[in-house]
Amino acid sequence: MAADVTRPTNVLESALRQLDDAAALIDLDPDVHAKLSKPRRALTVSIPTHMDDGSVQVFTGFRVQHNMDRGPCKGGIRYHPCVTLEEVTALAMWMTWKCAVVNIPYGGGKGGVICDPHAMSDRELEDLTRRFVSELIEIIGPDRDIPAPDVNTDQRIMGWVMDTYSMQMGYSVPAIVTGKPIAIGGSLGRAKATGRGIVFVTREALKTRAIPIEGARVALQGFGKVGSAFAEIICDLGAKLVAVSDVSGGVFNDGGLSVSDLRAYTLEHEVIEGFGGGEPITNAELLALECDVLVPAALENVLTAENAGDVRARVVVEGANGPTTPEAHHVLVDRDVFVVPDILANAGGVTVSYFEWCQGIQKLFWSEREVDRRLEGVMVNAFHEVHECARRLNTDMRNAAMALAVERVAGAIAARGACA
Question: What is the pLDDT of residues 206-221, one digit of tens each?
Answer without folding.
Answer: 999 999 999 999 999 9
